Hints:
Blueprint: H1 2-8, H2 34-77, H3 81-119, H4 124-145
Amino acid sequence: MARLAEAQGTATSDADGDEEDISEEATEPEAVDPEEIAALEKAVAQRRKERTAASKRRSALDTKFLPELKAAAEMAKAGDGGQRVVLEVLGEGLSTRLDAMSAEGRRELVAVFRRWAEKYAVSLTELEADSDGATEDFAAWLKGLGYAR
Length: 149
């Protein structure tokens, strides 16, 4: 529509009803082909028709949707259908939460074992070798003090 307004050469107005100032560079409007104006008006009219048709389709769907939804809800409530649906939804929710909790527990357990592996990454043979070396150093220290056996 902006192109149509430009093509027709209409100036926009401000709140006082005065026309906006036109820049000094564009003092004269460009000549526009009347055929282009007609083509633009035809395009605008077509878009308005399409919008009107889309609005009618939307309104028809709106009026049709709510009654169908209510009818489906009533059918689900009939007999044990409502209870079955509720139990299925609750069961699915519980199952999902249980799966998520057990996966989280597994991740925590793996993290604990990895921390332990990093913390206690010394083998028994290394510990025994260190202990033997410390025993020898201690015995030498006691001998230096005169407590040797």
